[in-house]
Each structure stands twice: as structure tokens, then as C-alpha cells.
Automatic annotation (TrEMBL):
PANTHER family found in the cross-reference section: INTEGRAL MEMBRANE EFFLUX PROTEIN-RELATED, MAJOR FACILITATOR SUPERFAMILY ASSOCIATED DOMAIN-CONTAINING PROTEIN
Species of provenance: Pontibacillus salicampi
SUPFAM superfamilies per UniProt: MFS general substrate transporter (SSF103473)
Record-given protein name: MFS transporter
Segments traversing the membrane: 21-43, 55-77, 89-108, 114-133, 154-175, 181-200, 235-258, 270-290, 297-314, 320-345, 366-386, 392-411
UniProt main location, coarse: membrane
Localization, UniProt: Cell membrane
Domain spans labelled Major facilitator superfamily (MFS) profile: 21-412
């Protein structure tokens, strides 16, 4: 009976706002993203402001990032093998326990040791990394295919807003409350989110034959399936190229560019950083309203080329105001690229492998971000200006579009 109800809910025409399952998924996504951004801010601020151990901050960030990458790969297999809702609930509830445990350390110790923060960050990365693959695998199971682009745009917009407001909210709360009180509040919200996940109804398929296969074999099947599919391989390569040539030069280079090239203050940097976030939010709203259903691969390629042109223009910005205008444009293009790509993966991946494919693509792009930062740091270290690095980084973006356009015809033709 429950299975029939689930199918009727999926097959009947509906708007996303009236879908209880999607609203709950949106809510849990917001809470998860807020908790991540607030947690990172709280730990970073505590290490810098209270412990005065700025040089050790990298240990915490590396611990979280590496363990999150490993967890995402495992989470992709688990999402295909088991119940995505149970994994998401376990992720949120585990994060809540970590928040309560850390709150206890802040209550018991005058100065929480750096090793405690590093271990907590590692476990946070493990628990948090399980959430995204399950969420990505769950979306096509609760949303009709013609609603995928709009659903992903709403989720990406929520994530961007959460990542922007999380540090602001955490900063205000720390001003009025102690660290342990703030952590307890975050943990309570995660508990509510974890419980809410159980009320998401999703389309359950019959048990697949490969569900009883060993974990290693299922993981290798995900790699093989992604790489042998021309479309999925091209989407993977596109995601990797975009993240490598944008993350370091643009995201890491923003404060350096504002201070060293435009000679701006911290206020100027906040305007530029805020402009990037504003652009991402506007882009998410716009892509959700447009809800493109045809030529999504070609659409993403064109926008990547525009991102390259935008970076080139940004590197030549003569003032803070010009930089803000250009960075808003670049920010708007970001969800215009990511949302169609995610929707294509969800639409064209095998139902029982979508979790593994999404986790591999996200892990591949996430894994290259530290290398992008390192490459940018090396170029800065040998005396190359950040504006020169940005300008030259725009060229591979534009060139990669041409290469992918002609090397993978399926990418420019796929709907």
C-alpha cells in the first residue's frame, strides 16, 4: 500500500513547494549546510582568537576535507546499496552527537586542545560526507525528471545562502552566547533535521542483484560505469576542469586581488565576496525559473566559456565597483553550470548507480581544490601577480570548452 502511495505522489502533477518530501529534503539540506559553515567558522575563530594558533588552523581544515572526501566515496556506494534517507538521518544525528561532545569539551576545559578540535573535525568530515551522495541519489527518487533542474536549483540556492549566512549567524551568536551554548543549539537543529528525514517518502525500486556484492566491487563498478559512459566521463572532466581553474585563482585570489591590486580595505573585500554570493543566489533563482530541459550539456559549455571571459574581465577590473559588478556576473554563471550538470547525471545515470556516480564527480572536483590552491600559491611565490594568474587561468576554461565540444558530441547534443 505504501509503495502505491509513493508512486501516486510521484506520478501526479505537482509543484515542488507542495511536495512534502521535497520540502523536507530542502529543510535538511539547509540545516546540514548551515551546520557545516557554522562549525567551520566556530573552530577557525576559536583557534585564531582564543588559542592564537593560526599556523595550526590548516591541520583542522585538512583533517575535515580529507576525511570528507573519503566519506563521500563510501557514501556513494552506501546510498546505492541501502536507504538514502536512513544514511542522511544517521549523518545528521551523528553530527549532532559530535556537536554535543564538543560542547562538553568547551564546558570542561578552559582551553580545548588543538588535537581535540582536529579529531572532532575529522569525524565531522566522515559523518558530513555521507549526507551529500545520499541527498543527490534521493532527488530523482522523489522528483519527476522534468522537475530535476528546478529542484537542484532550489537546493543549490539554499546551500549558497546557508554557506554565506552560517558564519554571520555563528559570529553573532558567539558574541552573545558561549561556545558550548552555540554548539548545543546546532546539535539540537541537527537532531530535528535527522528526525525529519524519516518522513521523506521516496520511490523504492525492487532489490538489485548487485546489492549483495562486496563493497570494493561495487565501488569499482561505479568507477567503471562512470568512465565507460562518454556522457558521464565528459561531465566528470568538465567538473574537474572548472573547479581546478576557478577555485584557486578566483576564490583564493579574491582577498589578494582586492588588497594588492585594487588597494581596497576589508570593507571592499566584503563587498566583492558578498557580490559573488549574491550572484550565486540570483543564478540559482534564475535557473530554477528557466528550468531548461533541452541542450543542457551545450548550455553548460557555453556558460563555462562565459566564466572564462568573466575571469579575464575581472583580472582587469580597475575599481572595487567594477569588480563587484563582474563578480556578480561570474557568480550567476556558477549555478548555471552546476545545476544542469547535476541534473544530467541524475537523469542519465542508472537508477542503482546514481549515488556512486554523483559521489565520484563531487569527490573529483573537491579533491582538486587543494591542488588548485597549491598551484596558485606556488605561482604567487615565484612572483606572479594574482591578476596575471587569473587572466591566464581563464584561457584553459575557454580552451576546454572547445575541446569538449568537439571531442564529445554527445555532450553538446544531450538534453
Amino acid at each position: 500500500m505504501e509503495s502505491n502511495v509513493n508512486r501516486l505522489e510521484l506520478e501526479a502533477p505537482f509543484s515542488l513547494s507542495k511536495s512534502k518530501s521535497f520540502v523536507l529534503l530542502w529543510f535538511t539540506t539547509v540545516v546540514s549546510s548551515l551546520s557545516l559553515s557554522m562549525f567551520m567558522f566556530i573552530q577557525s575563530w576559536y583557534v585564531v582568537e582564543t588559542l592564537s594558533m593560526e599556523a595550526s588552523l590548516g591541520i583542522i581544515l585538512v583533517s575535515l576535507t580529507i576525511m570528507r572526501m573519503v566519506s563521500m566515496i563510501i557514501g556513494g556506494v552506501a546510498a546505492d546499496k541501502g536507504s538514502p534517507t536512513k544514511i542522511m538521518a544517521l549523518s545528521d544525528l551523528s553530527l549532532a552527537i559530535l556537536m554535543f561532545a564538543l560542547a562538553a569539551f568547551f564546558l570542561l576545559f578552559i582551553d580545548v586542545p588543538i588535537w581535540v578540535l582536529a579529531i572532532n573535525a575529522a569525524f565531522f568530515g566522515i559523518a558530513g560526507g555521507m549526507f551529500e551522495p545520499s541527498r543527490d541519489a534521493l532527488i530523482p527518487k522523489i522528483v519527476r525528471e522534468d522537475h530535476l533542474t528546478r529542484a537542484n536549483s532550489l537546493l543549490q540556492g539554499a546551500i549558497q545562502i546557508s554557506l554565506f549566512t552560517g558564519p554571520l549567524l555563528a559570529g553573532v551568536m558567539i558574541t552573545y552566547f558561549s561556545y558550548n551554548i552555540v554548539l548545543l543549539l546546532i546539535g539540537s537543529c541537527l537532531c530535528l533535521s535527522g528526525i525529519s528525514v524519516f518522513f521523506i517518502k521516496w520511490k523504492k525500486e525492487e532489490q538489485q542483484k548487485d546489492e549483495n556484492q562486496p563493497f570494493k566491487r561495487q565501488l569499482m563498478e561505479g568507477f567503471t560505469y562512470t568512465w565507460t559512459s562518454p556522457l558521464l566521463r565528459s561531465l566528470f572532466m568538465m567538473t574537474v576542469v572548472v573547479n581546478f581553474f576557478i577555485s584557486g585563482p578566483l576564490l583564493m585570489g579574491l582577498p589578494i586581488f582586492v588588497e594588492g591590486v585594487l588597494h581596497g580595505s576589508s570593507v571592499g573585500f566584503s563587498f566583492v565576496q558578498g557580490g559573488l554570493t549574491l550572484g550565486m543566489v540570483l543564478g540559482s533563482v534564475l535557473i530554477g525559473v528557466m528550468n531548461p530541459q533541452r541542450k543542457r550539456g551545450a548550455y553548460a559549455l557555453y556558460l563555462i566559456a562565459l566564466q572564462g571571459i568573466g575571469m579575464l574581465l575581472f583580472s582587469q577590473a580597475p575599481s572595487i565597483m567594477a569588480a563587484v559588478c563582474i563578480i556578480i556576473f561570474i557568480g550567476m554563471l556558477n549555478p548555471g553550470v552546476n545545476v544542469p550538470l547535476i541534473s544530467l547525471v541524475q537523469s542519465y545515470s542508472s537508477y542503482e548507480k546514481v549515488g556512486r556516480v554523483m559521489s565520484l564527480i563531487r569527490t573529483g572536483s573537491l579533491g582538486l581544490i587543494p591542488f588548485s590552491y597549491a598551484a596558485t600559491s606556488i605561482l604567487l611565490g615565484i612572483g606572479m601577480g594574482i591578476e596575471v594568474i587569473m587572466a591566464w587561468s581563464s584561457l584553459p576554461l575557454i580552451i576546454s570548452v572547445a575541446v569538449l565540444y568537439f571531442a564529445y558530441p554527445i555532450l553538446r547534443d544531450v538534453d
